[in-house]
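Human: My hope is that you can spare some time for a protein that puzzles me. I am handing you a single protein, as its sequence and its fold in token form. Could you go through the record with me and say what the backbone is doing? Take your time, and here it is.
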Amino acid sequence: MEIDEAVRGCSDRRMRTKYANAVYVVQRAFALYPFEEVAFSFNGGKDSTVLLHLIRAGYYLYKKDSGDVAEMDAVKNCPLRTIYFESPCAFPEINSFTYETVSTYGLPLETIHSDFKSGLEGLLKEKPTKAIFIGTRIGDPNAVGQEQFSPSSPGWPPFMRVNPILDWSYRDVWSFLLTCKVKYCSLYDQGYTSIGSIHDTVPNALLSDSSTEKIFRPAYMLTDGRLERAGRTKKTNHNIEMNSVASNGMTSIEGEQTISRAASIIVVGDEMLFGTTEDKLGAALCKKLHAIGWRVSHVAVVRNEIDSVSEEVERCKSMDDMVFILGGLGPLHSDVSLAGVAKAFGVRLAPDEEFEDYLSQLMGNNYTGDRNEMALLPEGITELLNHKRLPLPLIKCRNVITLAATNVDELDTEWDCLLDTQESGLVQAKPFVSKHLGTTLTDVQIALVLAKLCLEFSDVYIGCHRISRAGPLVVNLTGKDNQRVEAAAEKLTSTFEGQFSQVDSCK
């Protein structure tokens, strides 16, 4: 069989291992389920093209091992029931490649024009279907929590999802396609690296020819598989943006600047709780968020325990736009931050090939432990935020970003890189402005005035602190409208003529 011969004869040891594991899953599926009750979901993309040929190879080997060698031509093509969900938003090239491929390999095609769930419900009512081969890979949005054999989700028609290439990377996919020299959709030679609908897919800009923006290199030339989806355009809900500011009569841009986003900061470290050291990074990060117009709603220091991290992440991730974790990263037994994040999202830690490559380049042969342990990241929800100034990418899991800084200087660098990385989600809004006024008046003397001032200037935060009990009282006024902050300050100082003076924020 040509696929089996091509892979087993190649020099790529990793490819041979991935292939052997995948065809074993295929063979196992055919051993568990009757052939007529198994189907293959094909969409014309690169992943399902790989899966098609793995199914062909696996079925051939299954029949060969069982001693059934009759009609080997039919066995080589594996005439498995094939499901195609045809969409009016699909690229014409995808449709034509799909029908051409089906014809080439004699696949009995069942075209469905409804959505995936409704289509499956109708399909399973007409024909018993116990298992469906699907080209899901780790990193796909629907891959979270799946195994190579995974029952369908609650509320869906009952069938077994068979995922032979679940642990394959972008590089593995192209290694297989090029090694086997099989035909794939022509869009991949035009710079498309991940194909969705005609409305949300463009060629990957990272493959653009430097001499012209209209010529792109083939998809297999993308060197960083983590950027596979860089050609998927992000949808913006303009209605939500407009509705959020319509009552104020502002434009969407003005509204975006004044919307206050909230963040939580979680500092992981027993050393802070024991009083061995003090947290300087949390305070520094608060100032940085404040400077880009973000409000910090919560700062917590937790123990180096998975459950402690998990409980805090679980509490913060649903309340705030972003959660930042400081500390607890590395190979030590106390480095539990990522395990805590994984538990909070209900996923497992799984090896990440791209992150392992970065670790290997950084450490070389100087690392004596199990390098794979440091490359275990929360499965299916992790995005690596790479920047040329960073030795390792920062790790983002949905709206949780884990920072690796150990001091303020390192935090400065990581923060600048985050702001320079669109995928970080750190939208810069209108910054807060502050005014700090000091007085020797007592709390009792100014309490009533401050209470009334809070009511009159509800859009300005008014707080107080003392450096010492005998020292001056500092009133802090913070908001996004400088005129309102100044007006509140003027109202306070005029009420107590000559009793207030401006001070630095640190006093």
Observations:
- The longest strand covers residues 294-302.
